[in-house]
Amino acid sequence: MREVEIEDIELFPVLIQRVNNFLTPEQCKDICDYYRNHREGFHDISLLTDGVSTWEFDSESHKEITNNIPSCSTFTNDMVNVIMEYASMLGVKMYCTQDIVTSWVSIQNVGSVHKRHKHTGSQIAGVIYLNVDENSNHITFYNPNEFASFPPLSHLNRYNLEKQTYVPKLGTLYLFPAWLNHGSDDMVNKTPDRTIFSFNTF
After folding, report:
1. Distance in angstroms (rounded) separating the CA atoms of residues 55 and 102
2. Do 174 and 94 form a contact (C-beta atoms < 8 A)?
3. 129 — phi, psi (to 5°)?
4. CB within 8 A of 103, min separation 6: which ones?
5. Which of 91, 159, 166, 200 maximizes the CB count within 10 A of its CB?
6. How far apart are alpha carbons 36 and 85 in whole angstroms?
């Protein structure tokens, strides 16, 4: 009788990297205080149902933070270092190795939803949580494999999840492929001035 041998081959994983304590609570507060005093650069943004952002195609909030907030004088270099390490793990060649291409700060009001989206035109994207608590809406990543939504399921596991949600923590950085859809999955924010720093790079 032949011996049956089963081998599991897991193809095409998506690597998301979470960097806990990338910023200290003091640094997060310093950044929030700075932008609270410089609200002239903010405007409405369609991704937030109620909130404002410094987002523009040429916005460089990372430089503003590095140059104007003493506790964050190494912010850009620290960001570039983790981005390059993550890119190396992905096997991705980065063309802008000395700087981040675009970065912005967004502030959500109570009752706001961060709509599902992806960062078109870049390779790696990320977010840092500057003002969040237990009432803040979460971050959800959506499975790019359409199979997850087709068959009837007997139970949930990593092969059939349509989405995965994580609770944001102060000072935490998430790095992910820019093509990966993400958002708050219609979860309503209950934190006054929920604040994040986001970026694109390639």
Report:
1. 8
2. no
3. -95, 115
4. 59, 60, 61, 62, 197, 198, 199, 200
5. 200
6. 32
Instruction: List C-alpha distances in Å: 80 to 75, 121, 144.
Output: 9, 18, 27
- Reference 141, options 94, 99, 106, 174; nearest CA is 174
CA distance 194 to 202: 27
Tens of each residue's pLDDT in the chain, 202 residues: 789 999 999 999 999 999 999 999 999 999 999 999 999 999 999 999 999 999 999 999 999 999 999 999 999 999 999 999 999 999 999 988 889 999 999 999 999 999 999 999 899 999 999 999 999 999 999 999 887 777 788 998 988 899 999 999 999 999 999 999 999 999 999 999 999 999 999 9
* pTM score, whole prediction: 0.95
Query: What count of Cα atoms within 13 Å lies in the side-chain half-sphere of residue 19?
Result: 19
**In the chain, what is the straight-line distance between the N-terminal and C-terminal CA atoms, in Å?**
55
- In whole angstroms, give the CA distance from residue 38 to residue 59: 14
d(CA 92, CA 124): 9
Closest to 183 in 3D by CA, of 166, 160, 201, 161: 166
